[in-house]
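ok posting inputs for the magnesium ion job
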Amino acid sequence: MRIILLGAPGVGKGTQAKLISEHYKIPHISTGDILRGNINKRTSLGLKAKSYIEKGELVPDDLVVSIVKDRLEKEDCKAGFVLDGFPRNLYQAKTLSEILKENKCMIDKVILIDVNKAEILERISGRRFCRNCGANYHIKFNPSKLNDRCEKCGEQLLQREDDSKDVVLERLSVYSRTINPLANYYSAHGLLTKIQGNEGIENTFNRICSTLQSVYSLLV
Ligand code: AP5
Ligand code: MG
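and the output
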């Protein structure tokens, strides 16, 4: 099953993609995680992406498209994948369709998670992550049992550098400028389903699963 998760910063794309990945046994591909991993390792890709991410702007299309193209060629993507944070604009969406066409496959479902702005700001301000293993927490909604340390590896939990108020507002503004053409594109292809994401993590996951189940049963 090939799935795309769309939604504003902080709606829970990463959280839900991880659950979908575990449930359907397909890889979770997050362009944001891949870019941050490259920044940490100070690769040339990371150096190119850093200044855009710090400002809350989109990283240039050619860099992101080549990351995704390489990742989709890996063996584990043959049975499907869940894309989180890609595509971000119409150009990326059309390029993804071409890449998949070359591989003789296509997207099965696009889920747009919708959450109101006040909730988004609360989710982002309370988000904590582990730089060592990538685990994601929230101080109120999904706290670590070890407080400010990661439950999985014991590392100190951190706030993302692009989660400062000004950068978040810029990320939200970029999102509001780019989402409509993207949503219209997938809607015209009959692939888009909008899901209310204001409820808790589990309820949102149940909503997503009910949408995906009909697609899944056609594929297996
Ligand atoms: P990216 O990493 O993709 O960030 P984003 O889209 O801004 O989304 P976030 O990761 O902030 O939020 P999320 O929706 O994953 O929420 P999460 O699950 O963490 O991109 C970062 C940057 O990289 C971009 O600004 C850009 O510069 C660059 N980039 C990436 N992709 C690109 C592309 N394709 N093209 C160009 N540039 C690109 O949840 C948030 C918090 O809420 C967590 O603490 C979580 O525990 C909590 N939470 C989640 N769900 C719930 C719930 N239902 N109830 C309560 N709390 C919840
Ligand atoms: Mg994310």
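notes: Helices lie at 13-24, 31-40, 44-55, 61-72, 90-102, 117-125, 165-188, 201-219. The chain has eight helices and seven strands.
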